[in-house]
Amino acid sequence: MQSFPPEKLYPNAEISPEQFELLVMNKFNKLYPHVEILHRENLKGVDGEYNIDLSIRFQELGVNFLVLVECKHHRYPIKRDYVQLLRDKVDSLGAQKGILVSSSSFQLGAIEYAKIHNIALIRLINEEFMYERRSREFLEKVVPPQFSGNIALQLIESLSASSLRSSIIDNFNELLGISEK
User: Fold this and answer.
1) What percent of the chain has pLDDT over 70?
2) What is the DSSP letter of 60?
3) What is the average pLDDT across 65-73?
4) Residue 152 to residue 173: CA distance in whole angstroms
5) 104-141 CB burial, b ≥16 within 10 A, e <16
6) Secondary structure (3-state) at 50
7) Is the pTM above the cut of 0.90?
8) Closest to 131 in 3D by CA, of 141, 122, 139
9) DSSP secondary structure code for residue 79 in this structure
10) Computed over its alpha carbons, how large is the radius of gyration of the chain?
């Protein structure tokens, strides 16, 4: 019998959708211990009630924030439809951010839609978050030198309608064209 949570999570790991949600919740709890995270919360929006995989609440600058997280443990790349549904929930519930976490990759249409509508896309690979899309502003930020080389980002670039290129970025100053002194 396989133990839970698994030591290594591959896209085809045999865990239930709920176990995947709990794995994602555990990862967020470890990274952000100061936030409140609820699993499968029912929230009322302007157009109905939604069951959200994970709802994250925190306060910053005296303002309450709500982040909606949808978790998809699929064997195949995530389609645009899932990103569209998450955006609709964000709008209806008045959340500040939507995050879609997946055990598999994302189709080009999903990545492009997420980019336009400011939805974060994250892959959970071996219990590590790989950010495929964070926010519009992320790449405009200057990364402090103490972080250079300590953060990695998987960059997904569209080469054509049917082709993607993936690369790992671990030197943000180089990416941003900032010379190190």
Assistant:
1) 66
2) E
3) 97
4) 12
5) bbbbbbbbebbbeeebbbbbbbeeebbbbbbeeeeeee
6) strand
7) no
8) 122
9) P
10) 17
